[in-house]
Amino acid sequence: MNKTQLSTLCYVRDQGNTLMLHRIKKNKDIHEGKWNGLGGKFFSGETPEECVVREVKEESGLLIKNPVLRGVLTFPSFILGEDWVVFLFEAFEFSGDLQSCDEGELHWIEDDKILSLPLWEGDPYFLQWLKEEQRFFSAKFVYKDKKLLSHHVTFYESEQLKK
After folding, report:
1. Which CATH fold topology does 4-119 show?
2. How many CB atoms lie within 10 A of CB 114?
């Protein structure tokens, strides 16, 4: 049985731009060379919201307010036999000054240019869902040797959430 790692991923948005992290500084980084949102692993006892606020602050110096949970992503056996469950957020409100990050370089990227960056193969799917769908979603992305083998998504209508 695989261990499950809980984590967060946040796309901080500001006036048609998104704060992205180019992962180029950390040794033996599975994300090396890729562009990602900000986030990371839960500390014991944290809620997803506490984790995402802490991680964005640690990585960028920005204090996000009212992060919006948009979906949950599952990555079976993603890293060394660990299943990863990622709580996916967007944040539109923040304060503070951008600082350097020890995992890579932070850049504000125009929203219409994000899909041209070197991303994980599955990222364009959920980035489009964030852009086009105003529904909560749960998705599974299966990778092997850093290659996307399959993906599946379930969208939840607001009527379903009220039941």
Report:
1. Nucleoside Triphosphate Pyrophosphohydrolase (3.90.79)
2. 19
Please say whether the beta carbons of 99 and 60 come within 8 A.
Answer: yes
Q: Give me the helices (H) in the chain, please.
A: 48-60, 123-132, 158-162
What is the spatial distance between Cα 55 and Cα 57, in angstroms, rounded to a whole number?
5
**pLDDT tens digits, one per residue of 57-116:** 999 999 999 999 999 999 999 887 789 999 999 999 999 999 999 989 999 999 999 999
Look up residue 76 and give its amino acid: P
Domain boundaries in the chain? 4-119
pTM of the model: 0.93
Could you tell me if 158 and 135 are in contact, meaning their C-beta atoms sit under 8 angstroms apart?
yes
- pLDDT confidence band for 2 (50 / 70 / 90): confident
CA-closest candidate to residue 55, choices 119, 5, 105, 101? 101
Confidence at residue 22, expressed as pLDDT on a 0 to 100 scale: 95
